[in-house]
Specification:
It is built from 19 helices and 11 strands. By secondary structure, it is of the alpha/beta class.
């Protein structure tokens, strides 16, 4: 199988070829290996290949399994491979190796996917861009010099360029949907608790983090969730394993009541400017949904964006401080001597000064927002709004400048972190971190399923995703809507040739 032939298919299509005897899983594996070898030196989506081990694992895959030996990639964050490096995008963990596979990896293998390597992530998955100091920075396959987003930026670069048809990803504040939007992919964030983080974690970021994948097609995303969903016995949520995600794609959808918003309720306090191209993408989606027979109405949910941003960043700070303590425990290196980036160190210092009261008050707002969205969804089945305020940024555009890093270094002075928090440093961080992407954190805090659909290509040649948020737990309905939107707009025929011609 030639690379250009391999790149024509999604994961489901490749599995069908293998099961039908038209091509062997070994031929598909070799095509993927050739694609990664040829493209990765330019795109840097893969930080660590594992071809030899993957080839041995392929021997244990039966062609009767759902994915029949189709290649994939895991993320260099949380997704443990026993005895293999897992650096979390950080030099501080460059030599750390987990002692057992994560449950997600076990389920992925049981489904017949073969993990060929690990993809780039920002340090500890903290940014909406993927520019870690410890590793090369992945490029957006649609245009050289542009970011694929983050934190699943390496995964997005790998799928959009045709290295693999599907790559595992995680989303704690938009980290699946933002790269999907920037790279013209389908990115689905399942409901809270749908995918296990065991055995290392019961939950991450108080349940905001959910793992799944970036794909070219809706059916690949649904097929994967079919086999990886269901909380571990030790998990914090009573979310049993279920089926029906793939079947939902072909069942007829009743007309839905869909709200449409440009997200001003989330972004006003951050100074966000939604571009004309993003506005056009949302309007295009609204017109398409109306043409498909759904009842569409422009309406903002009753959620206070400033309070949501402050709440999200408060827990973000607190969890980072705890994460750095964990890194110190794992490596035996004191926190103040960890080889971490200046911005990571600065945010960790702020988090270490948070009071338990402020942390708990922030978490309580998550529940208030969830209650507000629950009432909103009594009227509307889904909410359509932007993923990001614009197309993909240029590389380096959103990373803290050297001057900002020097300013952050002042937080090492005793007493300064506490003063900085009192002086409004949290608000400044919210503006810096969320101004371009204030629309995705809502679904993480409320636990709702949400997706980015590749509904538009801007005049500058870069893709624009549109976000759709569904009711908590109604992932199947969201997949059903995604499949209808995909069929209506024929995404697979609109992928830019640049994505395969780097």
């Amino acid at each position: 199988m030639h690379v250009h032939e391999y790149q024509q298919y999604d994961a489901t299509g490749l599995a069908e070829l293998i099961r039908g005897g038209e091509v062997s899983s070994k031929e598909v594996f070799e095509a993927a290996m050739s694609a990664i070898t040829a493209l990765n030196p330019t795109l840097h989506g893969v930080v660590r290949a594992r071809f030899e081990r993957a080839s041995q694992e392929l021997l244990n895959v039966t062609e009767k399994s759902p994915f029949a030996g189709v290649p994939t990639l895991s993320k260099d964050l949380l997704m443990a491979l026993e005895g293999e490096p897992l650096a979390f995008g950080s030099a501080a963990l460059a030599n750390w190796r987990p002692k057992e596979d994560s449950l997600l990896i076990k389920r992925v293998r049981e489904a017949g996917l073969v993990v060929m390597g690990q993809t780039a992530t920002p340090e500890l998955g903290l940014m909406g861009i993927t520019e870690p100091k410890a590793f090369p920075h992945p490029q957006n396959p649609w245009r050289e010099g542009y970011s694929p987003g983050g934190s699943s930026g390496g995964a997005a670069a790998a799928v959009a360029s045709g290295m693999v048809p599907i790559a595992l990803a995680g989303d704690g504040g938009g980290s699946i949907r933002i790269p999907a939007s920037y790279c013209g992919l389908f990115g689905f964030k399942p409901s809270r608790g749908r995918v296990p983080l065991a055995p290392a974690h019961g939950e991450v970021w108080q349940g905001a983090v959910v793992e799944h994948a970036l794909t070219r097609s809706v059916r690949d995303s649904a097929a994967l969730l079919e086999h990886i969903n269901g909380m571990a016995p030790s998990g914090p949520y009573p979310t049993p394993r279920e089926t029906g995600y793939v079947a939902a794609l072909s069942s007829s959808s009743k007309p839905l009541r869909i709200a449409v918003s440009l997200g001003g309720f989330l972004s006003r306090g951050l100074g966000t400017q939604v571009s004309a191209e993003v506005t056009a993408a949302v309007e295009k989606a609204a017109h398409a949904l109306a043409a498909m027979g759904h009842e569409v109405e422009w309406c903002d949910p009753p959620v206070e964006g400033d309070a949501l941003a402050d709440s999200y960043l408060t827990l973000y700070l607190g969890h980072l401080a705890a994460d750095l303590h964990w890194v110190s425990q794992q490596t035996g290196v004191p926190v103040h001597r960890l080889a971490i980036e200046p911005s990571t160190r600065a945010v960790g210092r702020l988090g270490a000064k948070l009071s338990a009261r402020d942390y708990e008050l922030a978490k309580r707002y998550w529940h208030l927002a969830a209650e507000q969205m629950s009432h909103f969804h009594q009227r509307f089945d889904a909410l359509v709004m932007p993923v990001a305020a614009d197309t993909a940024p240029k590389m380096g555009e959103l990373y803290p400048t050297a001057a900002r890093e020097r300013l952050m270094a002042l937080l090492a002075i005793p007493g300064v972190p506490s003063l900085a928090l009192k002086a409004g440093m949290l608000k400044r961080l919210a503006v810096d971190a969320l101004r371009r992407t204030p629309f995705t954190q809502l679904a993480n805090l409320t636990g709702q399923p949400a997706m980015s659909v590749p509904f538009h290509v801007a005049a500058n040649g870069l893709p624009v995703g549109v976000q759709v948020v569904g009711r908590l737990g109604e992932d199947k309905q969201l997949f059903q809507l995604a499949a209808a939107m995909e069929q209506h707009d024929d995404w697979q025929c609109r992928i830019s040739p640049q994505a395969f011609g780097v």
